[in-house]
Design brief:
Layout (H helix, E strand, L loop, with lengths): L2 H6 L3 H17 L8 H14 L5 H10 L1 H11 L10 H15 L5 E6 L5 H12 L6 E7 L2 H9 L1 E3 L3 H10 L10 E4 L2 E4 L7 E5 L11 E6 L8 H14 E9 L14 E5 L4 E4 L33
Parallel strand pairs: 1-2, 1-7, 2-6, 7-8
Antiparallel strand pairs: 3-5, 4-5, 8-10, 9-10
Bound molecules: S-adenosylmethionine (SAM).
Length: 311
């Protein structure tokens, strides 16, 4: 075998996994082909161990012919672990370093990409409510998994989590009692419906769907960690195109833009908490030397000032 051919050789398991992902894409439209291969292999092998399939090739047959088997595999491939006020210092940083900017805008558009069962959405809803921004905001909460979104819309969580979430809430700089935001029922708590006001839950696949409005802030935390470099770059570009100039991007604690093709299109707001800001392009000036763009971060064009008049 020549050196070149040897280089391209993939082990049999790698070939089977690729064929499985191709089958999922062709049959169901979910595109996992650019997810990190270590993550995919680990999850496929997990399903193999708990299913009756003897081989990955056999799983391909089952995926194609048994939608419920595919549903189980989808849950395996799309890790849904999440918590309320996950990484509390991030929430403090948003309160202290981002909210002062957002407060100057007349209207705020927020996108939670990969929102899972909604804990992050309710947490930021509480934060924006406490900071007096909720009534002039619109939140889009998206995920590519319909069954997960259904749970997010219900906002019902196990009561066992409440102690931990209460501690997180206070560590995150919460201003009230966490109990003000839910009703307890036997073994579960239901989040207050006011937190769902101005929140739109919607299906969106970061690997295959397009730009999402003119956002002022995007949260995409603990999602890109499962993607390969190519897909990470594509998704960062999608966020770049979805953010208005000066818009904020918040990633998960193990994610970073440091190696992204588009790193220089952002400035760093808080390195530790992974908060970035889309650079404004060099601002066009009026003939009088005023910036032509509004300074409220919306990127809207401002009418040039005519000497002696308020144009
Ligand atoms: C680990 S959870 C993160 C939840 C939340 N952002 C957090 O940090 O707690 C990852 C979520 O990303 C979603 N996801 C994975 N791939 C996706 C894709 N291509 N498009 C949209 N959502 C995706 C999964 O369904 C899952 O709900």
């Amino acid at each position: 075998m020549t050196g070149n051919r040897a280089k391209k050789e993939i082990d049999n398991e790698g070939i089977e996994v690729r064929l499985l992902l191709e089958a999922i894409y062709l049959k169901y439209g979910y595109d996992f082909r650019d997810y990190a291969s270590t993550h995919i292999r680990r999850r496929v092998n997990h399903r193999l161990a708990i299913s009756e399939s003897p081989t990955i090739s056999d799983m391909i047959h089952r995926v194609l012919n048994d939608p419920s088997f595919f549903e189980g595999l989808l849950q395996d491939l799309s890790i849904n672990v999440t918590h309320m006020f996950r990484d509390p210092p991030l929430y403090r940083a948003v309160r202290e370093e981002v909210v002062p900017h957002l407060s100057t805008y007349p209207f705020i558009k927020i996108w939670h990409a990969g929102c899972a069962t909604g804990e992050e959405v309710y947490s930021f809803s509480i934060l924006f409510q406490e900071e007096g921004l909720k009534d002039r905001s619109q939140t889009y909460a998206t995920d590519f998994d319909a069954s997960i979104l259904e749970l997010a819309m219900q906002g019902i969580y196990p009561v066992d989590c409440v102690r931990r979430y209460t501690a997180n809430y206070h560590e995150a700089g919460g201003k009230n009692a966490f109990a003000d935001y839910y009703t307890a029922m036997y073994d579960s708590v239901t989040m207050d419906t006011s937190l769902r006001k101005r929140v739109l839950f919607s299906l969106h696949n970061l690997a295959t769907d397009s730009v999402f409005g003119e956002m002022n802030i995007i949260f995409c935390r603990n999602v890109m960690i499962y993607f390969n470099r190519d897909l990470q770059d594509r998704v960062v570009k999608l966020f770049l195109d979805s953010l208005c100039p000066g818009g904020f991007l918040c990633l998960g604690s193990k994610e970073s833009l440091a190696f992204s093709k588009y790193a220089d299109r952002f400035t760093l707001v808080n390195e530790k908490e992974r908060i970035y800001r889309k650079r404004r392009r060099k601002m066009p000036m009026t003939r009088g030397g005023d910036p032509l763009l509004a300074s409220n971060g919306t990127g809207e064009l401002k009418k040039p000032r005519v000497k002696g008049k308020n144009a």
